[in-house]
Specification:
Keywords: Membrane, Transmembrane, Transmembrane helix. The chain has 60 residues and is mainly α. Helices cover 37% and strands 0% of the residues.
Length: 60
């Protein structure tokens, strides 16, 4: 029985690694396209919310 459980768990781990290997996204680097730097847009938010000093209970 212990041998059967070990065999089943080993089989499931092997299938998990196979699925992980074949499901990874393969990305290729394009050399012909010029990369541009992303621009950072900063917006001023005129309304600021006050941060409460007492936190609500989360129940965890």
């Amino acid at each position: 029985m212990l041998l059967t459980i070990t065999f089943i768990l080993s089989f499931l781990v092997a299938i998990n690694f196979l699925l992980l290997f074949f499901s990874c996204n393969k990305t290729t680097k394009r050399t012909g396209i010029k990369e541009t730097k992303p621009t950072l847009i900063i917006k001023n938010n005129p309304t600021k919310q006050e941060v409460p000093t007492h936190l609500a209970p989360t129940g965890s």
